[in-house]
Automatic annotation (TrEMBL):
Organism: Promethearchaeum syntrophicum
Gene3D superfamilies from the UniProt entry: Hypothetical protein af1432
UniProt name for this protein: HD domain-containing protein
InterPro entries: dGTPase-like (IPR050135), HD/PDEase_dom (IPR003607), HD_assoc_2 (IPR045509), HD_domain (IPR006674)
Any one GO BP annotation for this protein: dGTP catabolic process
Residues of the HD domain: 58-184
Entries under CDD domains matching the protein: HDc
Single GO molecular function: dGTPase activity
Amino acid sequence: MKKIIRGSTIKINDPIHGFMVLPDFITEIVDSREIQRLMRIRQLSGASHVYPGANHTRFEHSLGVAYLAKRLSENLRDLQGVDISDDDINDCVVAALCHDIGHGPFSHNFESLLIKHNNKDHEDYTEWLIKKSEIGEKIEEFSFDKNYISDIATGKIIGKANEKGYLLSQMITSAVNVDSMDYLMRDNYHCGTEKATVDINRLLLSMDEIDGFLGVNIKALISLEGFLLSRISSFRTIYFHKTCRSVQMMLEEAMKSVVNEIGFLNYSTPEDFLKWDDYVLWTDLIRNPISAIWMEKIQKRELLKSCFESQIQISNENIDVSELREKISRKTGINAADIFIDLPSSPNVPYSHTDQTRPNEIYTFERLANGKKQPVHLEDHSIFFNNFKGSLKILRIYTWPKNRKKVADIASSLYDTILKY
């Protein structure tokens, strides 16, 4: 077993957090194939077609999350008096560093195919890689329990709310977590939309353990609301920008067209999964004559065009996409294959990766004069929190430029009868 030298650190210069100070033992974990692969997976698939600076990767994000996990866990110990040891902090840092290694090429754009064909998401593959690939061996070399690290990273801690691992996991996976803090700041920075920045310093300082859960002091309400508003703003301006989604849909069509031929979803061993990144899959999609039709259009920026967009609503209801596509096809005479229905949705209020907490719940508390913490309901203090619950939804209809006007006219006429939801 390798020895962790207490107090020995490395410094990494980061455009978001400045110099990030991390324990130096993580260097060997960072140098693993599993983490290095993240250098070749962009954080935001398709976004660079709208925001030229959006070429950042899962690698830098993972380092940022590890850094924020260290800051938060140290704050809880040193400022709030939570019983967290140096070993606990290192567990949290390693789990945060590894939390995204299960992402496939094109990040979340790949997720729908993983779920549909393999019935697994990126967190399932994160767990698999930590437990079964070489990174697990590196983790164990420093006397970490790779199974425990996996559970913290993926929010799969099983047990009582007051268990230590449960609290550590919440730092990465709960309602207000360091993962979200980093990607909101990082994505907005690289897209040039950082004006509505997140005050993570205030949030980190205001967080504490209460009844086994990670909560936010209600005195930091303005910063907490800013965090939620930033998520909504990012949903609208970045993650579901109409052109970003156009590229993502075309990439997905390219992948779907050759999913069985190329075999990028068939993994017998971790090595089968790790060989796939943005570069490798993009090249294979270009070289295959079937998927090349889609890829060439992307490269020439001959993109699908949005011809209808519904009002943004918060709703838990669904719409039958296939039925809508067929109805538009019948009324326009356009082949249904040339009509694309996009119904992106995102939880307005962040929620945990698993059902650790009730959906859409953020734990808040106030500190009494005697120093004790008392739970409070966020909706009793925030003027708009109740309006955030549910999922933020936008319905868009895309087609090729030549069909745009015809589809737009029909979609508009159907709005009151079938599109409104």
